[in-house]
Design brief:
heterotrimer, A alpha/beta, B mainly alpha, C mainly alpha, A: alpha/beta, D-Maltodextrin-Binding Protein, domain 2, 2 domains, 11-stranded mixed β-sheet, elongated, C: mainly alpha, MetI-like fold, 10 helices, about 75% helix, PBP_domain (chain A), signal (chain A), transport (chain A), ABC_phos-bd_PstS (chain A)
């Protein structure tokens, strides 16, 4: 009789046992013989930005397939948490939507690295941010930074506003209210977008760059998917999202210099090349001071650059080879293409790759 | 139930026409159905005319207008023929039925949505693959299913003994301040928001394993915090239903109290208790927020409760929706398929609970 | 209290002692757990309570300015949901208990319970994909025609993801809870009371009004409170559906809406680090206190009513 009391847990335990005995068909790895000549083995732990999570998953998948004895874990705990984890030595590398700033570099204390050595920061994940809108009969709009900022700040409230019409001759703009959509969660996308608005239209956009939308206005939606859904399902909506998710929505060509640039992987990579490195850093610290106001031809200024951060010199030598091999894979043309395919990022240019490769080679 | 006998009209011609609601006229039996049919026709005709002039036929509008027309017509008709008391009765009947039909709308809409989208990826690969090394299409939710089973199972293992013993204490032993306090606190615990339980588990395990730790056991603890009060409440109800006479008979035979509980009270109420436990499991298995915080999410299979993040079905639905990659349809399909799986699991648990209750229920009580 | 107090002291056996001790132990575990929840939340919250914008990046000035609008949003959304759900739930409960044919009743009850079985993420997906686009035209109409009414003031949201939509989703989620309890209570109405009312010539509604509703009132109140508690703490559905901007406003149909504590935690926690985590846990503590207070008040009301209701 008493046994009946344990019926429920027993059912669960049995189900669990069944599940335990059946491994996921795509895991386990012991089945296929390793075709590669790889001699690498070990365990790498990374943590950081969730923006590059899909890219990391693709990279990890590619790298683990080529090196079956390697396991890499990337914990998408957020940029800030990723930097903290790396600082405390709990991870081998970090992913972060911003580089360490000068004070943090000066403070040092990277537990995983050899004493008094600094870090290598590599801009390996470049993601264009598209300004997307849903307006019947309009596929693309030319807008300058001040107009975009006006729309998102709530000072331009109707699609037939003269400021929009001025740069869009021949486009029939309806008399319809604008619903600007922004991310309601804390995100690197918002931080980069607001940074662009602040840099390119400082008169209109007076808020500081921040991962959280800085004022109460417009419509909030959760995550990239939420923004895309809100823009798609709404009428007269405009928002910003990873370019890979723009789909069939209308996109804004942004004014750079005298021309209007649609987002494209090349244009997004171009802004990184057109921007200077942060001054006063070590030779291989490739932190970039994005020049949002660049007027060079063919650059698309609204991008999110996410860094891979590793030690210049590791305190323990055990994982150095693995870190270098993994970073090299991510920087390689193949790695960048894999990320472009699965995460819609923009592959880095060859000139940047040379500097990155040099930096990776210098890791000890 | 409400048959009122209308006395035959045998008043003399001198009698003044008395308005008596008991003896007033009565609408014919099928009247309400006829009025309903008429309302639908009128409404459909109205929207048909609108649709004829170019607009799309508005189904929602049709039903809303039909319902309004019906309520107004039946009330007015009844008021004229049957008097105000019956009119009110018919009005309320229409409202009450309407409330029920209104609640069916989201249920039907939801079921249709989940089933249509969920079936896209409801295939063998979905139940045999994890998401490790999967980008874009393909992949499955086996790791999430295993995670859900492990975490919910562990939560059940923690909360069933505690919950059951607490309810035994409350019913069989509890006296005085401690019992009253526990009853009150169980009530309070029922009201703990699920996300607070998640934060608690996260904070608790952050102390032992350092900040940022997310493990399966933390998720299980969060679920257990949510589950214990439900188990206590339902078991307590069931134990109280056991007749005192059974206990007294056992005591009279000299059976010790603890044996009475184990051999008499528990077996009598075991069906109800099992039902309660099943329903409690069904309640926590769909929790998202606490698991997102306490157990995190991962793409790989993880059997180790104490090490590393663990995926679960609700969190899988959420992450597939929130972090869509390329192509997004593949991610959405997986999210809906997982949602369908989850609902099916919960439905089966509910159904089993009801069957257990029906077949093993004692022959008295409700 | 159905056990008979044994007038004669029974002999204490070791088995008895072990069993009663373990029962007491389990009961105490409840105390310990709840105390642990409270303690951990408080300990983790203390750094946040005294933090300012310097320490935690998500704070503008201090903690209270941050949590204020969230508390407002939490209560406002839950109250709206309860306002929508309560009459409908009572209607459904009455329909199942007193209107539907006896045979159908239990099936219908199960059907409504099915709504409770749907996980909140699924409600979130449904709210975004189906409900919000469906109600948006209605919102436009309301703003155009009833915009003078403060609650319906424009400009209308272009997506329909307003606090009213979130409240609708919450209402759908709490309807099965309120219905289930009210139904149970209605079914327990003494049959003699009902039959007496009918015998006196009452119509069905008059019978319900005079016999069923007075008897069920404490049950309805406690059901409503349970529903309110669920609505206060509901996280994912709100986080996914609501266009939250953190404003304090009563307007129902604009895209500027207050956020709720639970949704805000879910939105901000994944990227939170350092003292921000403590701030979010502290908002969780506030939510805990709010639900605790709501529950306590409701129990008190029910307990007071029960003394006077007399029907039993």
């Amino acid at each position: 009789m008493n046994l009946k009391r344990f019926a429920a847990p027993a059912v669960i335990a049995m189900t669990a046992a069944l599940a335990l005995s059946s491994c996921a068909a795509n895991e386990g790895g012991s089945g296929e013989p390793a075709a590669s000549e790889s001699t690498l083995s070990g365990n790498l732990v990374g943590a950081g930005a969730s923006s590059q999570d899909s890219a990391q998953q693709a990279w990890i998948a590619g790298f683990q397939t080529a090196n079956p004895d390697v396991t890499i874990d990337y914990d998408p705990s957020g940029s800030g948490a990723g930097r903290d984890t790396f600082l405390s030595g709990a991870s081998d590398y970090a992913g972060s939507d911003r580089a360490f700033n000068d004070e943090e570099i000066a403070a040092g204390g990277f537990e995983k690295c050899a004493p008094d050595t600094s870090v290598v920061e590599l801009p390996l994940y470049i993601s264009p941010i598209a300004v997307i809108f849903n307006l019947e009969g309009v596929d693309t709009l030319n807008l300058d930074a001040a107009t975009i900022a006006g729309i998102f700040a709530g000072t331009i409230t109707n699609w037939n506003d003269p400021a929009i019409a001025a740069t869009n001759e021949g486009v029939e703009l309806p008399d319809q209210a604008i619903t600007p959509v922004h991310r309601s969660d804390d995100s690197g996308t918002t931080e980069n977008f607001t940074e662009y608005l602040g840099a390119a239209a400082p008169d209109v956009w007076t808020y500081e760059a921040d991962g959280v939308w800085p004022f109460e206005g417009g419509e909030g939606a959760q995550g990239t998917s939420g923004v895309v859904d809100a823009v798609t399902n709404g009428t007269g909506t405009i928002g910003y999202a990873d370019a890979s998710r723009a789909g069939d929505l209308g996109t804004v060509a942004v004014q750079v210099g005298d021309e209007f640039v649609e987002y494209s992987p090349e244009a997004a990579a171009a802004i990184v090349d057109a921007s200077p490195f942060v001054e006063g850093r070590d030779e291989h610290d490739l932190a970039i001071e994005l020049d949002r106001t660049s007027e060079e031809a063919g650059v698309y200024p609204i991008v999110l650059v996410s860094y891979l951060i590793a030690c210049q010199e590791y305190a323990e030598p055990e994982n150095v080879e693995l870190v270098k091999a993994y970073l090299s894979y991510m920087a390689s043309a193949e790695g960048q293409d894999v990320a472009a395919e699965s995460a819609g990022s923009a592959p880095i240019s060859d000139s940047l790759r040379e500097q990155v490769t040099a930096a990776i080679d210098s890791i000890q | 139930m409400t048959t009122t006998i209308t006395p035959p009209e045998t008043r003399g011609p001198a009698a003044a026409p008395v308005s008596n609601s008991l003896t007033a006229g009565k609408l014919p039996n099928g009247a309400s159905w006829m009025v309903l049919g008429g309302s639908v026709l009128v409404s459909a005709g109205l929207f048909g005319v609108i649709a004829f002039s170019g607009a799309e036929f508005n189904w929602v509008g049709t039903f809303v207008v039909a319902a309004l027309v019906y309520v107004v017509t039946i009330t007015l008709l009844s008021r004229i023929v049957e008097g105000s008391r019956r009119a009110t009765d018919r009005f309320v009947t229409a409202l009450v039925t309407g409330a029920f039909l209104l609640a069916m709308i989201p249920l039907i809409s939801l079921s249709i949505t989940v089933v249509t989208f969920g079936l896209n990826r409801f295939d063998a690969e979905f139940f045999s693959y994890s998401m490790r090394n999967v980008t874009g299409e393909g992949g499955g939710a086996l790791h999430a299913i295993v995670g859900t089973v492990l975490m919910t199972g562990t939560a059940a293992l923690i909360s069933i003994p505690i919950g059951l013993m607490t309810s035994i204490y409350l019913v069989e032993y509890g006296r005085g301040r401690l019992a009253r306090g526990i009853t009150f606190l169980v009530d309070v615990m029922t009201g703990i928001p699920s996300i607070v339980a998640g934060l608690f588990a996260y904070a608790l395990f952050a102390i032992f394993w350092g900040p940022g730790t997310r493990t399966g056991i933390a998720g299980a603890v969060a679920l257990a915090v949510l589950m214990i009060p439900v188990v206590v409440r339902s078991s307590e109800e069931m134990l109280r239903l056991v007749p005192v006479e059974l206990r007294e008979a056992a005591y009279a035979l000299g059976v010790p109290k603890w044996l009475t509980i184990v051999k008499v009270v528990l077996p009598t109420s075991i069906a109800g208790i099992t039902t309660g436990i099943m329903l409690a499991i069904a309640r926590v298995i769909g929790e998202t927020a606490p698991l997102l915080i306490a157990a995190g999410f991962t793409n790989s299979m993880n059997y180790d409760m104490t090490e590393g993040r663990m995926q679960s079905l609700p969190v899988f639905v959420y992450t597939q929706y929130a972090n869509q990659g390329n192509p997004p349809e593949a991610y959405l399909d997986r999210a809906w398929a997982a949602a369908l799986t989850l609902i099916l699991i919960v439905m089966v648990l509910n159904l089993v609970a009801r069957l257990v209750a029906r077949f093993f229920a004692p022959k008295y009580g409700r | 209290m159905t056990t008979a107090a044994a007038p004669i002291r029974a002999k204490q056996r070791p088995g008895d002692r072990v069993f009663s001790k373990s029962a007491v132990f389990a009961g105490s575990m409840i105390l310990v757990t709840l105390a642990a929840v409270a303690t951990f939340l408080i300990v983790q919250s203390i750094p946040a309570l005294f933090a300012d914008g310097e320490d935690a990046s998500i704070l503008d000035s201090n903690f209270w300015a941050y949590v204020g609008p969230l508390v407002f949003g939490t209560i406002w959304a839950a109250a709206l949901a309860l306002l929508i759900a309560l009459p409908i739930s009572i209607g459904i409960a009455l329909f199942i208990s007193h209107y539907a044919p006896r045979r159908l009743a239990s099936v219908l009850g199960y059907v409504v319970d099915l709504l409770a079985a749907v996980p909140s993420v699924v409600f979130g997906l449904w709210g975004i994909g189906v409900l919000a686009p469906a109600v948006q035209p209605l919102y436009s109409w309301l703003v155009d025609n009833l915009g003078w009414f403060p609650l319906f003031a424009g400009p209308v949201s272009g997506t329909g993801r307003t606090i009213l939509t979130a409240a609708l989703v919450l209402a759908v989620m709490i309807i099965p809870i309120i219905t289930a309890i009210s139904r149970e209570v209605f079914l327990q109405t003494p049959v003699l009371h009902e039959e007496a009312a009918l015998a006196l010539g009452a119509t069905r509604w008059e019978m319900i009004r005079t016999a069923v509703l007075p008897f069920g009132r404490p049950g309805i109140i406690s059901a409503a409170v349970l529903g309110l508690g669920r609505a206060l703490g509901e996280t994912m559905a709100v986080a996914m559906v609501l266009s939250a901007t953190g404003a304090v406003t009563f307007q129902l149909l604009t895209s500027v809406n207050p956020s709720t504590i639970a949704a805000n935690i879910a939105l901000s926690f994944p990227e939170a680090y350092g003292i921000n985590v403590n701030v979010l846990i502290a908002t969780g503590l506030i939510l805990f206190i709010v639900t605790f207070a709501v529950n306590a008040i409701a129990r008190w009301i029910v307990a007071r009513r029960a003394e006077f209701s007399g029907a039993n």
